[in-house]
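[Discussion] Sanity-checking designs against the backbone

I'm trying to build intuition for which residues belong where. Below is a structure token string of 158 positions. I'd appreciate it if someone posts a full sequence so I can compare it with mine line by line.
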């Protein structure tokens, strides 16, 4: 009996740990942050932060609106394509297939409990996975983009 109770005692913390892992943990370069704002406000704040830099918003893709046109329901899911043409264009000229993965994207979405999130690929993922995938040369100083993504996402969510 002591062995069984000892086993169960060890199982309880393991079960608690497994259920405590955040549902939206970073995985394979994906960063997800909770937003204190509505979906629309988070989108607007993110786009404002993008435009405050030498970047632009290319477009938005509203997946929920598209689903609704076909009689389907979906919680808000909006993808924002953004980037810096001055930085990205020269790389795409040399490596055309990089355009399948660029410009960077951010996703503003609402979960089943109504909580709003902002997700995007990390600069590490962009430069260590996507660039090599296409044989593109990694910029000598890629880390300013990491700082920009952090600042833009913080402005949008905090």
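Best answer:
Here's mine. Compare freely.
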């Amino acid at each position: 009996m002591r062995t069984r109770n000892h086993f169960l005692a060890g199982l309880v913390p393991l079960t608690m740990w497994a259920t405590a892992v955040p549902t939206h943990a970073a995985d394979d370069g994906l960063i997800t942050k909770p937003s204190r704002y509505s979906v629309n406000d988070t989108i607007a704040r993110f786009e404002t932060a993008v435009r405050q830099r030498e970047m632009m918003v290319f477009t938005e893709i509203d997946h929920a609106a598209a689903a609704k046109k076909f009689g389907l329901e979906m919680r808000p899911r909006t993808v924002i394509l953004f980037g810096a043409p001055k930085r990205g264009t020269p790389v795409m000229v040399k490596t055309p297939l990089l355009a399948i993965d660029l410009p960077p994207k951010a996703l503003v979405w609402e979960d089943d409990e109504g909580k709003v999130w902002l997700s995007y690929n990390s600069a590490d993922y962009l430069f260590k996975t996507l660039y090599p995938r296409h044989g593109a040369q990694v910029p000598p100083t890629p880390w300013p983009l990491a700082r920009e993504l952090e600042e833009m996402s913080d402005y949008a969510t905090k």
